[in-house]
UniProtKB/TrEMBL annotation, chains A, B:
InterPro entries: HTH_LacI, LacI/GalR-like_sensor, Lambda_DNA-bd_dom_sf, Peripla_BP_I. Keywords: DNA-binding, Transcription, Transcription regulation. This is LacI family transcriptional regulator. It comes from Paraburkholderia unamae. Residues 1-52 form the HTH lacI-type domain. Gene3D superfamilies: 3.40.50.2300, lambda repressor-like DNA-binding domains. It holds the Pfam family LacI.
Length: 331, 331
DNA sequence: TTGAAAGCGGTACCAG
DNA sequence: CTGGTACCGCTTTCAA
């Protein structure tokens, strides 16, 4: 920066002001810009953050980047935060709370303006860390009874119950469930709990359950799980899956066995992933706006940041995201 | 840090040393650790980077985070770089060179130790920026004739040609191609070029081509494209797709029309995504180790970083990644 | 509108 | 093994 200042014949401060787009005469501005170009000067963000006491980072922690669910949410966040000059520091927890804790600690070192987490399951240390940091926190994809700070999501239990009701209305009674495997995937577990709760409420049997392998649930899990379910309870009329991925795997397994979906057996998914609409038969699913969760989270973050400067007001602690059952061909 | 030092009854320097895991007596170390715990002290990364002149960032730019291809590559990078204490600064270019340029400039502000880009197509300004920065650069997913610095990838042209040869050997002659749409997706374009080159070499017609919409190519593109191809050239025997995603969409379209794949028409994909193995019929494809590209890139980065300190030696400028045609059911 | 000085929170370097 | 000092590159603050 000193070099730029010297070349432009001004002080460092003037260069700093020009770069920040603050008051400066046209002439000076021009000379400074030219000097910057000429030297290929790129300001050091670390120095700026240190000096001003505020970084331009927003930390985002997702369980898995390779799940389109979460990468869509990251996309929504990017769309809202980038125009504000904020940069995302993205971390992948791999569904492990300990890893989340490590990552939170690591991100906190960069003094992020805000930190967005996925879900409501965190270690005590993580909570303590966040509390102490004083940084705004948003929990995404869930609506905890007591958010750390803010939350943007929906009740996976309720959404799952709604799908069960849909299936029951369609006349299916012997309904099975595929998924809810890992204790680490709270959202998957909640969908399982929703299945159980609604089946009980409807007075239907709720033992036709095959739990899956590790999260993230992928399509590869669906096939074997479906095979097991068909073997153990051949009279099953419909199967609800913890995600569209496993639903797809299940449908493919049925096709391999010559079963017609939905005539021989109905299958429903969750999430409304692209594959649900494309695949044949198209998958009946619960639509959740993953990108929208990112956007709304971004908006809540921007509002919280502005509120820090006394401009505008924070969003409410909980932002509820809509979901809908989307009837398609598979159930 | 001063607070920690005061509480532990030592100097700031000693605290700094303890945190860096350098020489310190057991007693001192203990007291410092306790003070850190008690105060919930989290060191400021920006200050550390500024002072030491080196950050712990590695910048990574991918065209799209929601493509499993690239998120797998990011996973491979993470696996190798995280244990080295390096952190990823991830950016999504959306296949736009101008966006890549903006992101490169932005990442450079954080003084990354290294920067990994996808592909070999960059604006002149990007190249200049990188050159001047003096930061090691790795281009992934391609093997440019003249890499900016290092490259880890393979020839999409050659891989594509190999798939055409496979199809021809299987006896197919009237082979079509789906994809290679966007000028921005160099890799897709290269696969298209490979198709043309090999069809020509084999003396086969190469006009049965339907170009797709925007990148990233998704499964939704495959259906309509397949429909168009079937309409225009009903005598087509096999179709090669620019990616497994479009191949899947194409297969679903065939099923909707009551066509049997591969009996009525054969379909091949590219990339060996999870869906290719799961779907029915399973998709014949070109397998590329996306995660491995990330790993190898990570290793090249670590080697380059060590070489900077005079420890060990850099990897060669080009690292070739293997690919193989995987025969499955669809072709 | 511009400039000078101080200092953000760490680490390098050298001395003890 | 430990401490003091300078300084990294920028922004804040205050004065001109």
């Amino acid at each position: 920066m000193s070099d730029v200042a010297r070349l432009a014949g001004v002080s460092k401060m003037t260069v700093s002001r020009v770069m920040a787009g603050r008051s400066a005469s046209e002439a000076t501005r021009g000379r400074v810009q030219r000097a910057i170009e000429e030297l290929g000067y790129v300001a050091d963000a670390a120095a700026g953050a240190l000096s001003s006491g505020r970084s331009s980072f927003v930390a985002v922690l997702v369980p898995s980047l390779s799940s389109s669910n979460f990468s869509d949410t990251v996309g929504g966040l990017t769309a809202v935060l980038e125009p504000q000059g904020l940069e995302l520091l993205i971390g992948d927890t791999d569904y492990l709370p300990e890893r989340e804790e490590r990552l939170v600690r690591q991100m906190l070192r960069h003094q992020p303006r805000c930190i967005a987490l996925t879900g409501s399951q965190h270690t005590d240390a993580t909570r303590a860390l966040l509390q102490r940091s004083g940084v705004p926190v948003v929990e995404m994809w869930d609506l905890p009874t007591e958010p750390i700070d803010m939350a943007v999501g929906f009740s996976n239990v309720s959404a799952s119950r709604e799908m069960v009701r849909y299936l029951a209305h369609k006349g299916y009674q012997r309904i099975g469930f595929l998924g809810g495997a890992s204790e680490l995937d709270r959202r998957g577990l909640d969908r399982f709990k929703g299945y159980q709760a609604e089946m009980k409420a409807l007075g239907l049997e709720r033992h036709r359950v095959v739990r899956l392998g590790e999260s993230p649930v992928t399509m590869s899990h669906g096939g074997p799980a479906m095979a097991e379910l068909l073997e153990r309870w051949p009279d099953t009329q419909a199967v609800m899956c913890v995600s569209d991925m496993s639903a797809f795997g299940a449908i493919m397994e049925c096709q391999r066995r010559g079963l017609n979906v939905p005539r021989d057996i109905a299958i429903a998914g969750f999430g409304n992933f692209e594959i649900a609409a494309c695949c044949h038969p198209a998958i009946t699913t619960v639509s959740v706006d993953a990108y929208g969760i990112g956007q709304r989270t971004g908006e809540a973050i921007v509002a919280a940041l502005l509120a820090e400067d006394g401009e505008g007001t924070r969003h409410p602690a909980k932002t509820r995201i809509q979901y809908t059952v989307v009837p398609r061909e598979s159930a």
